[in-house]
Amino acid sequence: EGGTEDNGEEATTATGEEEEQEQDQEDFLADPVANQAPFQHPELEATREKLREARGKIRELKRDLDEAKDEAEMDFGEDLEFWPLLGKCFELKHQQYTYEMCPFKEAKQKDGRDSTSLGTWKGIVGAEEDESGGESNSHHSLLGVPGKVFKFEDGAYCWNGPERSTTVQLQCATRDEVIAVDEPSTCMYTMVFGTPSACNVEHTEGLQLDLENNSLVDLEGGEGTAGDDPHSDL
Question: Which GO terms describe its biological process (predicted)?
């Protein structure tokens, strides 16, 4: 008999729990917002969303800080003359390929959607320190000017050759542009890059002197023409 009474109590308890669950379901259906579980409460979800946004901002600030640290350690030249080139890329179409040079980042050879790394940024060195080889230096002497060069190394492997690398000779110019590209040795590329950042005092003084001489020639030519003009006395 005792066993029978226990079973009856268990059945009654189970029935009561089922009724409570059914009532909870009815209440939830009647007002799902007010009766949803605590972890689904709108205020809690709003707090979680703010937390996610805060974490995202922290990650973004950390990336900015890391980039700022990397930039602080970069060599932009003695007078930071190459800093304006940061974050920029320059291209030149040569034969079937497009060559892209991004100072402080990477050099690439592109063929449609495909691209091949010609080296990642290694730094700025003096032209006399360039160890890219005699043919490359000869190329520089023909197209570039003495001074600094950009070095890109550890590019994609060549078939039966070394890792690709690129040496960029800098040339004083009025605008930023890749002027020439060559491959004097297997998988060892050279570029000539014209930029105002490569213009030193000597270049500037030379350009100014040329402009003054040209202006003087034009002025003298103009005076001679005026003297021969039969209407010049009028």
Answer: N-glycan processing
Q: What is the pTM of this model?
A: 0.56
Instruction: Give the span between the Cα atoms of 211 and 5, in whole angstroms.
Output: 115
Q: How many residues does the chain have?
A: 234
User: Long-range contacts: 93-99, Cβ < 8 Å, 24+?
Assistant: 94/181, 99/178, 99/181, 99/189, 99/191
Rounded Cα gap, residues 203 and 206, in angstroms:
5
pLDDT digits (tens, 9 = 90+) for 71-85: 666 778 778 888 899
Beta strands in 17-113 (DSSP E): 90-94, 97-102, 106-111
User: How many C-beta atoms surround the C-beta of residue 57 within 10 A?
Assistant: 10
Q: Give the rounded distance of the alpha carbon of 110 from its chain centre.
A: 16
Residue 41 token pair: 């409460």
pLDDT in tens, 138-193: 333 334 445 789 999 999 999 888 899 999 999 888 899 999 999 999 999 999 99
